[in-house]
Amino acid sequence: DQQVKQNSPSLSVQEGRISILNCDYTNSMFDYFLWYKKYPAEGPTFLISISSIKDKNEDGRFTVFLNKSAKHLSLHIVPSQPGDSAVYFCAASNANAGKSTFGDGTTLTVKP
Amino acid sequence: DAGVIQSPRHEVTEMGQEVTLRCKPISGHDYLFWYRQTMMRGLELLIYFNNNVPIDDSGMPEDRFSAKMPNASFSTLKIQPSEPRDSAVYFCASSLLRGQPQHFGDGTRLSIL
User: Fold this and answer.
1) Lower Cβ count inside 10 Å, N or C end of chain A?
2) Of the candidates A20, A13, A27, which has an alpha carbon nearest to the alpha carbon of residue A88?
3) Is B61 left (phi over 0), alpha (psi -120 to 50) or beta?
4) Which pLDDT does position B1 carry in this prediction?
5) Alpha-carbon separation of residue A58 from A63, A77, B17 (angstroms)
6) What is the pLDDT of residues A6-35, one digit of tens each?
């Protein structure tokens, strides 16, 4: 049973446009959500997070939205840049658990 | 600041050999995680430690896999004997506190022939 799902394996957008990456979860105990970015031959790097007490968190061009009733979160990148081309992982955790559960990732390609 | 350091970056070995992957977490981080990434299974957690103590090893595939953390600055993941299906990229990560963002190493690409 996959508790964190990223249903789109890939996404392609034009430079300057908005990129929207989606993530769904099934475990209602999750209360902290994270996005990581991964370039080839490197480890994932933390990008942005959101606590379940919020529905939005913004950091520069990156905004994460959380819809608890739908058990859905999304990452918006505006404007998208070619350097944003990478694999994006959604992850979820619980305050009482030390570990995070990761989705399978979405490969974003931003075309110049 | 030095990040999480993994060695070796690449390992190619023959089936049946023992493989040892190494990890140095970020100083002061209390949590250490071992992950495996494959095309079929994505990024899966194998085991994690808190203050050098294994907390959850439910992701370890089988008895051929073992992990240790003898001190706060070093951890190993061993596979003995190795099999071709163990070929994957293995990541180590550490975090300061429970549930907080993890800092990943650049991984070890393991190929078992």
Assistant:
1) N
2) A20
3) alpha
4) 63
5) 4, 10, 48
6) 999 999 999 999 999 999 999 999 999 999
Cβ contacts of B56 on chain A, cutoff 8 Å: 98-99
Structure token digits, residue A85: 């081309």
Q: Among B56, B42, B34, which Cα is nearest to B107's? A: B34
Q: What is the mean pLDDT of residues A81-108?
A: 92
**Residue A46 near residue A31 (C-beta atoms within 8 A):** no
Determine the distance in angstroms separating the CA of A41 from the nearest CA of chain B, rounded to an integer.
7
B residues 52..91 contacting A (CB < 8 A): 55-56, 91
Q: How many CB atoms lie within 10 A of CB B59?
A: 16
Higher pLDDT, A99 or B14: B14
Residue A72: name the closest of A6, A15, A8, A10 by CA: A6
Do residues A92 and A84 lie in contact, with contact meaning Cβ atoms separated by under 8 Å?
Answer: no
Average pLDDT across each block of 10 residues of chain B; the chain has 113 residues. List them in order.
Answer: 92 97 96 93 92 94 94 96 96 91 96 96
Query: Residue A97 is encoded by which pair of tokens?
Result: 């658990």
Residue A48: closest C-alpha in chain B: B101
